[in-house]
Amino acid sequence: MKQDILFISDLHLSLDKPAITRRFLAFLQGRARQAKALYILGDLFDAWVGDDDYTPPNKRIRTALRQLTQTGTQVFLQQGNRDFLLGGRFCQETGISLLADEVVIDLFGTPTLLMHGDLLCTDDLPYQAFRVKAHTQEWQQNILSKPLLVRLLAARWYRLRSFFHKRKTQQDIMDANPDTVRRTLQRHGVARLIHGHTHRPAVHDFDIDGQPAQRFVLAAWHTQAGEALCWSGGNYKIEII
Ligand SMILES: [Mn+2]
Q1: Which of 7, 46, 169, 196 could be disulfide-bonded to 12 (CB atoms 3.0-4.6 Å)?
Q2: 43-72 pLDDT, tens digit each
Q3: What is the distance in A from the centroid of ligand 1 to the CA of 199?
Q4: Ligand 1 centroid to 1 CA: how many Å?
């Protein structure tokens, strides 16, 4: 019987990195089929300009996700800061379920908060301001009304800009803010959080009002390897993909 629950994030799939796409397709056709559920916590794609984009490798990914959901593995997806335009049409075509930005699941008896992680990086003020704007309906409708080619070119430009922003932004403001982490867990009344985004894989143990809490940070996938956090019963392990 399928028991395992898998968590992955930050694959940043793109045409430029075919090795990661190949690894992910093999994962969907192999390991993921033995899982009860697969949670993809954002930035599956390095850029997403709309569900009408079927340029490579998007079409093959869609087909493989559909095949996985048809074998009985449930797939849940959160938007990341790169693929926040991923929407209903993609989900309908693949049979996956889109989750809200902050969602609490019952993970083998322990309420667990799932997030992409960008909302925790509250020290990066310019990004948070952009995020607010980019999550309004007006902004998204305006973008999605542009021809696909224009959006694809704009995404290339945005990625370049983001690359330079990262280079000149101090590393510590790109990480999760500890106070924001605490407040977010308190707001949801949970003691466990799983997120990605920061590309700093770790399991952090800390206290909230004297109570033990845990924060799992998922690894980004690279050309050489990917990682999945696997929960089975009350135990977890990190699997190299
Ligand atoms: Mn991210």
Answers
A1: 46
A2: 999 999 999 999 999 999 999 999 999 999
A3: 8
A4: 33
Per-residue tokens: 66: 């559909």
Domains, the chain, with CATH or none: 5-240 (3.60.21.10)
Residue 130: is it exposed, middle or buried by C-beta count within 10 angstroms (0-12/13-18/19+)? middle
The model scores a pTM over 0.70: yes
Distance 110 CA to ligand 1 centre (A): 25
User: How are beta strands 227-232 and 5-8 bridged, if at all?
Assistant: antiparallel
Tell me, in angstroms, the distance from the centre of ligand 1 to residue 9's CA: 8
- The residue type found at 194 is I
Token pair 């095949």 in the structure block, residue: 67
How many angstroms is it from 41 CA to the middle of ligand 1? 9
Three-class SS state of 229:
strand
**Number of residues that make up the chain:** 241
Residues 6+ apart with CB under 8 A from 12: 20, 43, 45, 46, 82, 220, 221
- CA 218–ligand 1 middle distance (angstroms): 11
